[in-house]
Amino acid sequence: MLMITDVDLTPNPQALKFILNERLLKLETRQFHNKHEAENDPFAKGVFEIEGIVSVFYMDKFITVEKSKETNWGQIQKPFINFIKNFDKNLIPAEKDIKPLDEDASELLKQINKILDERVRPALAGDGGGLQVLGVEGYKVKIHYQGACGSCPTAISGTLMAIEGLLRRDLHPAIEVEAA
Q: Of 33, 59, 91, at which residue does a domain stop?
């Protein structure tokens, strides 16, 4: 039975990270910005049935839920806990086969992902979020924040600059990072 073992605050005041007793996904991350996007995912769809939820992000052993500004956590807490306890995790769609970056992937992209995997993604996951590299054109890196990071002012400004500084220092001084 799925159970919430802990709740962490995130830098985003509208999002909480709920740590679970069982793993939901091994490799993938899943981000849903609205109920329509979650239509084919019974887990996320069920969370969106709770009034006031505006985004759902889950991976590994946690789920980050963002609420609307008008909703308070007290309205969400009990229905959310009940949903988690009663949800059959076997209904979560199977993960897609994630292929490692192939030989055709640029060496720069491989290096960027290696640095992000080692130094950035673990910290973002600790705050209930994630980061996906959408592409690299020349030295311009497009990233997409996930979970609590997706609508957090800190991620969109400070974290973005920190990632850019890290990549410039460790890889190339001309790298520019922009959020998509």
A: 91
Strand partners of residue 178: 142
Nearest one of 37, 68, 62 to 50, comparing CA atoms: 68
Burial 44-81 (b: 16+ CB within 10 A, else e): bbbbbebebbbbbbbbbebbbbbbeeeeeeeebeeebe
At residue 104, the pLDDT reads: 54
Q: What is the pLDDT of residue 38?
A: 97
Final residue before a domain boundary, out of 60, 91, 122: 91
pLDDT in tens, 121-130: 998 898 888 8
What's the token pair of residue 129? 């979020």
